[in-house]
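Progress narrative, Year 2. Work on Disintegrin and metalloproteinase domain-containing protein 28 from Geodia barretti advanced from sequence curation to structure prediction during this period.
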Amino acid sequence: MVYKYLLLLTALVAACTAITVPVQSQTSKAMVKNFITVQPEILQKSRHARDVHPERLDVKITQDSGTFTLRLTLNSKLIAPQFASIYFAEDGKEIKITDQPNCFYHGEVLEHPEWQVAMDSCQGLRGSFGDWSNKTQRYNIEPLNQNDTSLEQPHALYQADDSEDEGECGTTHEHDIVSPNPLNLSEEELDRARRQTSSGTRIIELTMISDRSQYSYYRNNMDNTVSRALALANAADRIYRNINIRIVVVYSIVWTTGDRSQFSTSPDATLQNFRTHTISIRSQYPSDAFMLITGNDFSGNTVGIAYLNTMCGSASVGVVQDRHVSADATGSTLAHEIGHLLSMNHDTSACSCNDPSRRCVMAAVSSIPPPQSWSSCSSTQLNTFLSSRGSCLYNEPTHTVATPTCGNGIREGDEVCDCGSQEECDDPCCDARTCRMAAGAQCTKGECCTSTCQFKSSNTICRGSTGQCDIAEKCTGQSADCPADVFLQDGSTCNNGQAYCYSGQCKTYNAQCQTHFRTNKGVDECFTSYNTEGNYFGNCGSDGSNFLRCASSDAMCGQLFCQEGDFQNTVNSVYILQVGVYVPSSRSVKQCVAFTTPPNSDVISPGLVEDGVKCGSSKMCYEQRCRSISSLGIPQCPTGSNGRVCSGNGVCNTRGQCSCNNGYSGQICSSSSVAVNECLNSNGGCAHTCVDTSTSYRCECRRGYQLATNGRSCNDINECSGNHGCAHRCTNTQGSYSCTCNSGYRLGSDGRSCTLIPTTAPTTRPTTAPTTRPTTAPTTRPTAAPTCGGRLTATRGSFQTPGWPNNYPQRDFQCEWTVDVAAPGYAIEFRIDTSAYGINGRSPCSTDYIQFFNGISNGARSLHKLCRFDNPGAITTTSNEARVVFAGSQNNRRPVSRLGVRVTYTLIDIDECATGTHDCQQQCRNTVGSYTCSCGSGYTLDSNGRTCTSSIQNNPSDSTCGGRLTGSSGSFETPGYPNGYPQSDFQCEWTIDATSSSSRIFFSIDSSQYGINGRSPCQKDNLEFFDGMGPNANSLAKVCGLLNFYDRGLPTVLTSSSSARVVFTSTDAYRTASRIGIRVNYWVI
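Result:
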């Protein structure tokens, strides 16, 4: 899934090619009106300098208002060891230059420790320094004579904001985007993606491509064009090093003879063309990302565009317009676009930004001075990316492009180590004089190097497994470095065989739903019913203009449907959808939620099912298709002479290579150092049972336990979280579980069922008509409950905790009371006796407490949980049953009170009309102990005393225009559907009446052909759904036009009562939209 973003400016700088005379700038198009002439003084170069661009450089700049002393340190990581600058001759021949000098620095200002510096000394001093949070304290410097390379020549010094404009970031909505995650990586790409750093620093290997317009701007000078690209990368690197990411330029390509991908004033088209070009050269110039630097202007205010969440993939590309302002300003744009590749979205008001300017790097509106800080949202999004797909950035160059200098603290060239000068070195493994290992040392640094400078023994785990689909790496005993990080082969089973591994993760619908809604996958029927429609409700992506229908076989790989939950928004401008399907097998409607983006959005919906999710036996989703795993070209591992993969002594990894078990080695894990019965040695490391095999061993667990992902430990199975079979309560135990019953019930002989303990009810249920009840509550003598729990059946009474009011025991115990009064139609009201009340504990009442439940079942909803002196007043149930639990404990830390509590209860009348528990079809009036039904104007009450018959006449006199619907399911449609309804004033009304008061009605629009003349707020032609049949019934939805349901996020309608009214209104209004009409499906459930 790929998204792209644009960076826009509200005002472009003037199209001038130089700073106002006498400053002949090759940097800025803008006019600098105020500058002063300064002559830098070189105070000190590093004592190990062997080059015109020393490792360390102190520069003094004096002006009227004071002195700035710049302490510069060479950015030795900026240029990769394999770096080459490349251009093309007239005949198209590629010319490669590899001796690029490194003249790029970061630094500090000694007089202002909080200030920063990004500068180069390629031709004089050029760059920026100052306080990036204050535009009046940030300065640019550049030489007056572009042909003089001296650092001590006259330079122009001016405030940076004198040549820059602020801007904003925006998006467009037309682009055809493809998947960034091809499975068929070359061996070279795998090597580059898996080499590891020892420091945890991430490395972005970047290819910078300068187009013909950029080359022309720098007067067809190859050196100046390449230097500008490196200066931009140097500025961006200074921003990223704050979050332990470094930018290393591996290639700088200049299109000297003409553009190799077509530029368009449309940024979308330029990005797509550039991406197509990079696909053809990616193997030739292996990189994590490609960035095009253009001197052309886009239409509007766009100055940058990139895809989202594509780093290291085939769409890891972006375009930056060089406005030829200071390098740190355009470099900030470069950092912003690289941020999108790393999955960082635009900041919103919900993101916190600690920068004094309140603008961070990923702000939707850019600012001057350029932002340097990262928001809380960017940090979260980056961490998510790094945890799932960041392994490709653990690639550290082995040396840098600079003259090796032993003692400068930077490992370069053929140096084994460099710990600084002899005075500075604190590494016992490194000889500071020679930059070689100390005597007797085998290694200096690395995960497999001990503190005594020796290789760690073989099979020592140096990188643990992060999950079911990751493989723990072990030291070889011959190297200080941990072997490359590899994962289980794509397509390996995980999650107890219910899912497949893909890119090192166990991919499941549930995991994706947890990310977006904190819930699990919706029912399959949501996928199969909606994804074949090819619209907002369901699709398999879009072609940039229209949604794509899923083939029936691919429906499980289209839009993701989850159970209802709280949406966790990660992308702007999404539509949240709630849909439902009728499931005939269960005679119920299942609700699902989803989210998507418009079909012409520049953001491919993250609400699509991810690649790697299991969609069938030996099948996984890939690019929104359900494909057999064998068709994906996954690298396969060799088999041994016994016909088993890796000889059965290892597992296949993502490289198509064998990762061998302990004791085995070789390409097919066939070499055994010694034939042993691993089970004889500490039980093979198995927690329970070790089973020796002919070639290895395996661990097994006793009944009630399951094997952990490490293959050795045994985890208890919590039977109570699944289908345990207990009628009331399930208590998990180690390796088993037990069932118990609520108070007043007896456990059956099967150990699972519960039977009611017989008692004599004090009252009997009235045998009155369905709409009447006793006008007064049944009355029995108040009873006091047993001291610790029991069953209460009286219509009023009380109970108290043990020992009340003289303190309850300080020990672990629990009391449970059930209140079960034979008086349907009444509720129970509890009140706390505050005359003597106190429960030890404090919020959230985790130890001592009293808790009230709305019913007697184990799954009844909690009404209140109280401790200390909490008193919510009346606690009321919704029925004549309740359960109350009191828990005491040994806890004596910070005791509050142990008086205990006394609770009184009584029955109260339920207002059926207010709670919706009545049987009236239209209007309900509550009475004491009962209720009566009536009908609205135009309706008469039927003989059953609860339903109403309509007297409204439909117009026109068409059998399809309105009527009473009585079936359990069916459909209705507007007159003339789908050939168009009449352009005249008329109204159709349908009523649906369920036979049971507990039934609900579910509606679904047939969106294959749908169109009602009008637009929101639907004041003319419309279809309106009412929750009930009466004239005062609440409106559920009012639709018109073509996309009203989508706009409002209401693709389905579900009533809350047992009847409904649907009214279609037509007018003679001039046709401004479709008059196809509409078909509505309904189910009574």
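The two ends are 38 Å apart (CA to CA). Residues 222-240 form the longest helix (19 residues).
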